[in-house]
Design brief:
Structural class: mainly alpha
Order of helices and strands: HHHHHHHHHHHHHHHHHHHHHHH
Organism: Euphydryas editha (Edith's checkerspot)
Number of strands: 0
Oligomer: single chain
Number of helices: 23
Subcellular location: Cell membrane
Pfam families: Sugar_tr
Radius of gyration: 24 Å
Helix content: over 70%
Membrane topology: Multi-pass membrane protein
Strand content: under 5%
GO molecular function: transmembrane transporter activity
């Protein structure tokens, strides 16, 4: 009885969010792990010999398996349930870390990272679903901001610990994140939304009230009534050709335009420096700042800066227009890349000025743009530009594209450094950033302060019919919205606007 009085619904929501956050921390450690692993493998007494090809595969194999995890995530999350999917994520992450700890070959390291990538791919789909379904709308925005903060802190943590300890001991410490999460998952309930889709209404009520208390019972009963209505209508429906339905969706401007925007936004994110610096920071800092600087100090310093500016970005992004934020951080990112390329080129061709403050300023400027814009903005815009009824499909395509671009950037980086040097690599990246920034600014409408319906209408080119407007009265995807949308599409007056 005392438990019910002392443990508030908010504390319970914090608990279930923390279980998700620990797995996000674990995956962020995996992303940043090559930065401390690869330099140690290059040492003379390393037990694992390292070639250039092996170096690039260790860093980039994560992205390929991340892609695989993204593709199978929906089937696991929807078929087995949120809690079971969370168990699977933690167990796969644990196995991946243990293989890494015990690795005595490059193949074993790659196998460990592949498993970690599959876990991360599942997590990238599940994390927002879990936080969104477990938490109250009053706290949901704050809880969702913990995703980017956990990512930044995880990279900082692994770089800090890896600067002091061997890569095996660092991996041994990191394994505790998914292990503790696994223990916490035991004490978290199944998602009330998933229980609802399976017709387990009594369990849904019990879990919903455990998480939210009794103050939001009206929302609970509306959800249950809506689901029953949807299930009743679904029995009457004839099966449709899924391929034809998918083709119909792809042809809609309100679907393919957001997809194009997100592909270019993800390209901006992956080539702006956050991805390559997480994995190759010691290499980049050594080439940029010279062999005499303490690269581990600067690596941890930049990670600390990233956490600080990620936190500030949560405040700033909510108050500044989206296009302005993309323009400002995008232009600054392009400028910092060109400036670094020019500085390195000049130093290699006779310029004798080698004061450390100048390259330090340039790399800090690059990291500022990553933390403030090129990393968080794709997540913000991705949550706004997709129509509600296509959000799951659009998010899957967006995450898949992001993983593919991540693999390309990580796999090609060592080869670019060998062939054109750091200045050539940064010049290529600057051109890629500039082209994608221009395309995004051409395609992206201003979304701040607009409803999801207004944004969709802008992509579509004209407002929706009355029936379509009815289907999107709620900002959250729900059975009522789906039901009304399907009913409206049956009426002759509700023609699809292309």
């Amino acid at each position: 009885m005392e438990d019910k009085k002392t443990i508030t619904p908010f504390m319970k929501q914090c608990f279930v969010t923390a279980a998700v956050g620990l797995n996000i921390l674990s995956f962020a450690c995996i992303v940043g792990f090559p930065a401390i692993l690869l330099p140690q493998l290059k040492e003379a007494d390393s037990i694992i010999p390292l070639t250039k090809a092996a170096e690039s595969w260790i860093a980039s194999s994560l992205a390929l398996s991340l892609l695989a995890g993204n593709l199978i995530a929906t089937h696991i999350v929807e078929g087995l349930g949120r809690k079971t999917a969370h168990y699977i994520i933690s167990v796969i992450a644990l196995i991946g870390w243990y293989i890494t700890i015990l690795a005595t070959s490059v193949e074993a390291l790659i196998a460990g990272r592949i498993l970690s990538g599959i876990s991360g791919g599942l997590l990238s789909v599940l994390r927002s679903v879990l936080i969104g379904e477990y938490t109250s709308p009053r706290n949901r925005g704050a809880f969702l901001t913990t995703v980017s903060l956990c990512q930044a802190f995880g990279i900082f943590f692994v770089h800090l610990v890896g600067s002091l300890l061997s890569w095996q001991k660092t991996a041994l410490i990191c394994v505790f994140f998914p292990f503790i999460s696994l223990i916490m998952i035991i004490y978290t309930p199944e998602s009330p939304s998933w229980l609802l889709t399976k017709g387990r209404y009594d369990e849904c009520r019990s879990v919903f009230r455990w998480l939210r208390g009794f103050e939001e019972d009206q929302e609970l009963e509306e959800m249950i009534r809506a689901r029953k209505l949807f299930n009743k209508e679904a029995v009457k429906k004839n099966k449709t050709n899924r391929f034809a339905q998918l083709l119909k969706i792809i042809k809609k401007r309100e679907f393919y335009k957001p997809i194009m925007i997100m592909i270019h936004m993800n390209t901006l994110m992956q080539f702006s420096g956050g991805t390559t610096m997480a994995s190759y920071s010691t290499v980049i800092l050594g080439l940029l700042m010279g062999p005499n600087v303490n690269v581990h100090f600067w690596m941890v310093f930049l990670d600390t800066q990233r956490i600080i500016f990620n936190t500030i970005a949560v405040y700033v992004i909510n108050r500044v227009k989206r296009r302005l934020m993309v323009l400002f951080t995008g232009v600054l990112s392009v400028a910092s890349h060109f400036a670094i390329a020019i500085y390195v080129y000049c130093r290699l061709h006779g310029w004798e000025y080698d004061a450390v403050w100048l390259p330090a300023l340039l790399i800090n400027l690059q990291f500022f743009t990553v933390a403030m814009g090129t990393l968080p903005m794709p997540q913000v815009i991705g949550g706004e530009v997709f129509p509600l009824e296509y959000r799951s499909l659009g998010s899957t395509i967006s995450l898949t594209a992001s993983a593919a671009i991540m693999f390309l950037s990580l796999k090609s980086f060592p080869s670019l450094i060998d062939s054109v040097g750091l200045y050539g690599t940064y010049t290529i990246y600057a051109v890629i950033l500039l082209v994608n920034l221009i395309i995004v600014l051409i395609l992206l409408p201003e979304t701040k302060g607009k409803t999801l319906q207004q944004i969709e209408d802008e992509f579509r080119g004209q407002p929706s019919t009355f029936e379509e407007l009815e289907s999107r009265l709620s900002l959250q995807s729900n059975p009522v919205g789906i039901f009304k949308k399907e009913m409206s599409e049956r009426r002759p007056s509700s023609s699809v606007l292309l």
